[in-house]
Design brief:
By secondary structure, this protein is an alpha/beta fold. It has 17 helices and 15 strands. Helix content is about 45%, strand content about 20%. The radius of gyration is 28 Å and the shape is globular. GO terms for molecular function: ATP binding; kinase activity; thiamine diphosphokinase activity.
């Protein structure tokens, strides 16, 4: 197997996918490739992936490698850290099963990660899951004590311009199955018209579906300038001490923003913002709701998520649930209206056509004879 193409490189996969084009070779340094990153690489239709770290280490059963292999995208691994500096963005390289060349010169060794390798490491990951779960629970409980202010009312919720009171709110995170979920609830969005909140890249997801975010919230590290300019309101997630690195980017674009200092994740404070502004119902798309999701994000616990869902739980529903509970349908009055509208032209044409008028007159006479009128 020899694969030839232009290389694009970045140690952060989420940044790299913004620059990738059809047929590129992706050079990454991503330990335990997660499902979201793998799906993004598949969507860009790269020729192959070269990883300077372990694509699957066996720490837990991450599904990223399986997604790439299923899409027919080969994965090569190398422990040669110098490779990242040896190649330049846009260089044409060739990747063989055990080496990488540029201009016919071998610049690094590599190893092809095949289906058997992935299957073996997945098995190890599943065996390690119980141990990881123990650590995860311990960290969750430890940090829950520190972050309890999220639910006890000690957290100051900033004032926003968007009027949420007694309306449905749709919170979109660019997470697992977010596209499928958004497609599934299009009827709900079109008919109910909920307030649309995009969490970082979730704002771009809303734009992709032809909608404008009412609010975008996050640390501004994975949202496009286009989305920031289109959004009706921007909320920057700051550290508890008030430091907000993402605010500079917003100001550099000449835009205004509300700063929300809080612990936890941006999706957590998006839910809190909706809840504290008296949302009638909060629908979540792509949010993290299980241990694997959090392990894939490198988080050691889900204290803030646990606490926030404890607080907003009565008003929170996952988009998959909305799809099952809600089915857009035509109301009877609309069906009757459509039927009448369709019949009117037929009736008018019929009455204007002489033979039809004679036929109707004969039918009237026949009915009178039958009923003795």
């Amino acid at each position: 197997m020899i694969i030839r193409g232009k290389v694009k490189k970045d140690r952060k996969t989420k940044n790299l996918v913004k620059r990738l084009k059809l047929g590129d070779i992706a050079l990454i340094s991503h330990r335990d490739l997660d499902e979201i990153a793998a799906t993004s690489l598949v969507e860009k239709k790269v020729k192959c992936v070269i990883n300077l770290d372990e694509t699957i280490s066996g720490k837990y059963p991450n599904q990223g490698p399986s997604i790439l292999l299923k899409a027919g995208i080969p994965i090569f691994e190398t422990d040669n850290e110098k490779l990242f500096d040896l190649v330049n963005e846009g260089d044409t390289i060739e990747v063989n099963e055990d080496h990488i060349t540029r201009n016919d010169e071998v610049i690094s060794s590599c190893h092809l990660l095949d289906a058997e390798d992935v299957k073996r490491e997945l098995g190890i990951g599943y065996k390690n899951l119980e141990e990881e779960l123990d650590k995860f629970i311990e960290n969750t409980l430890e940090y829950a004590k520190k972050e309890k202010g999220l639910v006890t009312g000690n957290l100051k919720i900033p004032k926003i311009k968007t009027k949420i009171d007694k309306r449905h709110v749709l919170v979109v995170v660019r997470g697992k199955d977010y596209k499928r979920d958004l497609e599934a609830i299009q009827a709900y969005i079109n008919e109910v018209k909920p307030i649309l909140i995009g969490v970082d890249g979730g704002g771009d997801a809303i734009l992709e579906f032809g909608q404008i975010p009412d609010i975008v919230i996050g640390d501004m590290d994975s949202i496009s300038d286009r989305c920031l300019k289109a959004a009706k309101e921007i909320v920057v997630h700051a550290y508890p001490n008030g430091e907000a690195p993402g605010l500079k980017r917003v100001k550099d674009l000449g835009l205004e923003a509300v700063v929300f200092p809080a612990p936890g994740t941006s999706e957590d404070i998006a839910l809190l913002l909706a809840y504290s502004n008296n949302a009638d119902l909060i629908v979540a798309v792509g949010t993290h709701n299980n241990m694997i999701d959090f392990l894939e994000k490198g988080r050691k616990g889900m204290a803030s998520t646990f606490l926030v869902r404890l607080k907003v739980g009565a008003k929170l529903i996952d988009a998959k649930g909305v799809n099952k509970l809600y089915h857009g349908h035509l109301k009877m009055k609309y069906i009757i209206g459509l039927a009448v509208a369709a019949l009117l032209p037929i009736i008018v044409i019929t009455l204007m056509f002489p033979p039809m008028r004679e036929l109707i007159a004969l039918l009237k006479i026949r009915l009178r004879i039958m009923f003795g009128l």
